[in-house]
Amino acid sequence: MSTYDADALGWFGGAGAFGGRFMPEALIAALDELDVAWREAMADPAFTGEFDRLLHEYAGVPSLLYDATRLSEHAGARILLKREDLNHTGAHKIRNVLGQALLTQRMGKTRVIAETGAGQHGVASATAAAYLGLDCTVYMGEVDTERQALNVARMQLLGAEVIPVKSGSRTLKDAINEALRDWVASVDETAYLFGTAAGPHPFPSLVLSFVRGIGDEARQQCLDQFGALPDAVAACVGGGSNAIGLFAGFVDDPEVAIYGFEAGGDGVETGRHAATIFAGSIGVLHGARTYVLQDEDGQTIESHSISAGLDYPGVGPQHSALSAAGRASYLPVTDAEAMDAMALLARTEGIIPAVESAHAVAGALRVAKERPGQTLLVNLSGRGDKDMGTALEWFGLGRAGAQEQGEQG
């Protein structure tokens, strides 16, 4: 068993280490039902065959592996991009959601709920629900509905009800809280499409089973296209679904270094960040034991990031286990570093990444200085259309003189 594989009770890294299930009694039966249904489905060739068909014919995977030569020239190392931004709905999220929505249909439930930060999981959930004829409700922090207004509109056009959450920090953490409350009250007809590889058992393992194709594809593409594995792989980490999907393909290759880049926000030293593993401590959040941003009394601290998708004070337990085992390194990237990387990728390769993904690019540029001439594989988890409002404000775009200000930004 690897550190990213859970035992029968959902523990990663050994019993009592990371993961588990810390939930109200009212949801234990639902989690058990989900666990059994998921394991039976994954052992059923009819289910996995339909999942593979949807990924190929509907979602557009396997995604490309792209040799970013101009960015590489700037970095001083060869940078390969796994183009998850080219998937249907513009992010890796569609893989996870299609799997969970198919499972919902198999379980005979008619409604799905989801939480979302950057909006990509919400859009993917609304898309899968529309495709499979399921009712869909998406919870989203009020702050995130404002900075991701385009994705709110996309969800509504797809037929989903979007409920802004006005409690707490009005971001992803609070959206998850509200989605869990809804699930407790409606579990008989509702499935919760968890948006990342976090939460109570079996969600971390279940989500990994649907997104691990990112890493499996990338590993084989490296061998087919370049005849060798990369020296290192990198991804951004909020909850950590895109990252664990990529890492799963390489975690058993000890010669491949693994880097996860968390949201450093204004800088870890300022306290305004979401660098959960780098600067957090072990606690319990949303049903799992993992690294959490918390105070000395165990109360969760509000996180901060320019990227809504990384603005989360917890992380998936697999990442905690990989960090504790020393198999992966988790480092912070500031808002400014990420936005600089966003502009650099746009201007060297003609690719506008999501702000989340720009954290991974920025981290890879830093790693490249330590590994000149080596090959670094970066998961480009989403595209930047949704973040143009953020870019417009950060760089001062959309008016005369914007070019100069953008270059200074």
Task: Describe the overall structure.
InterPro entries: Trp_synth_beta, Trp_synth_beta/beta-like, TrpB-like_PALP, TrpB-like_PALP_sf. It catalyses: (1S,2R)-1-C-(indol-3-yl)glycerol 3-phosphate + L-serine = D-glyceraldehyde 3-phosphate + L-tryptophan + H2O. It is an enzyme of class 4 (lyase). Tetramer of two alpha and two beta chains. The chain is of the alpha/beta class. It has 17 helices and 15 strands. Strands 3, 4, 9, 10, 11, 14 and 15 form a seven-stranded mixed beta sheet that branches. It has a four-stranded parallel beta sheet with strand order 7-6-5-8, with helices on both faces. Strand 12 and strand 13 form a beta hairpin. The radius of gyration is 20 Å and the shape is globular. The protein starts with 10 loop residues before the first strand and ends with a helix.
Structure, briefly:
It holds the Pfam family PALP. The chain is of the alpha/beta class and 409 residues long.
Indicate the radius of gyration in whole angstroms.
20 Å
The percentage of residues in β strands lies in 15-25%
Would you tell me the structural class of the helices and strands? alpha/beta
Number of helices: 17
Unreliable stretches covering 5 or more consecutive residues: 405-409
Helix content: 40-55%
Overall, the morphology is: globular
The largest sheet, given as strand count, sense and whether it forms a barrel, is: 7 strands, mixed
Mean pLDDT across all amino acids? 94
| Ends distance | 46 Å
As an assembly, this protein is: single chain
The overall strand count is 15
Protein name: Tryptophan synthase beta chain
Pathway: Amino-acid biosynthesis; L-tryptophan biosynthesis; L-tryptophan from chorismate: step 5/5
Cofactor: pyridoxal 5'-phosphate
Organism: Nocardioides humi
